[in-house]
Amino acid sequence: MPAPTSRALSFDTAAARYAAYRPGYPPALLDTVEELTGRPLHRSRVADIGAGTGIATRLLIARGAQVTAVEPGPGMAAELRRSLPSVPVVRGDGNSLPLATESADLITYAQSWHWTDPERSLPEALRVLRPGGALALWWNVSDHTVPWIADQGARLSGHLGETESVHGTPAGAGTRNLGGLPDAGFKRQLLRWSRTVPVDTHLANLATHSAFLVRDDDGGESNRRFLAEERAHLTEVFPGGAVEESYVVELAVLPR
Question: Which of 57, 126, 127, 151 has the smallest number of CB atoms closer than 10 Å to its CB?
């Protein structure tokens, strides 16, 4: 199995913060997964790839799925084991799944497909899926139509660089979130939702993204300065201190 990139493993340094501050997903997401796959999650065998700290894993289990988590990062896997001790956790990545052929009814990638090489990960997913199974990919993308989010996106690009993504690629913008895969065969849905969190939680969420985690050439000083300035911007927009984060979940399901 190829070694995961250092960037993909950067989350290990922030596993506890990732678990505490990253957003979850709306209930409508798994309702839509069931609709598009044509089968209930209850008692389905699910492989959650790039499971991280188990944010999606936990929701799948709550629906009655039998979940095996696959995660390359030791720090993230340890956090998942700590919070979900009954869930089997297998170390590995999507390019070479450590799973038996035709062993899963559903394979999920929550915020993790873009860390794979689709030319390898897609055949691997199809190998592991049972006949009639499905591959489900999804991302939480900040809603770029919301003015304050668009303004923050511009500031993030100025700090991190134009090619970096913290808010994510705008939902529906071509096939970029699918890692270059064609639309053919995929059933797609966009689901809007929001959460309201303290400004500290919002800033901590930003800081758990890899674009921040790998930017340590000055010991993190520029990141701290940016986040302090961002706190001032957010205080003007949300004087009460509660930030309404608006998201669009981009979902793509491929039946086997």
Answer: 151
Centroid of chain to Cα 54: 10
Instruction: Output the CA torsion 76→56→82→206 (10° steps).
Output: 50
Q: Alpha carbon of 246 to those of 24, 167, 172, 193, 209: distances in Å?
A: 12, 10, 15, 6, 17
Predicted local distance difference test score (pLDDT) of residue 254: 95
pLDDT at residue number 245? 98
- CA–CA gap between residue 189 and residue 139 (Å, rounded): 11
Ranges under pLDDT 70 in the chain: 1-6, 170-184
DSSP for the chain reads -PPPPTTGGGGGGGHHHHHHHS----HHHHHHHHHHHTS-STT-EEEEET-TTSHHHHHHHHTT-EEEEE-S-HHHHHHHHHH-TTS-EE---TTS--S-TT-EEEEEEES-GGGS-HHHHHHHHHHHEEEEEEEEEEEEEE-TTSHHHHHHHHHHHHHH-TT--SS-SPTTSTTGGGTT--STT-EEEEEEEEEEEEHHHHHHHHHTSHHHHT--TTTTHHHHHHHHHHHHHHHHH-TTSEEEEEEEEEEEEEE-
pLDDT reported for residue 214? 87
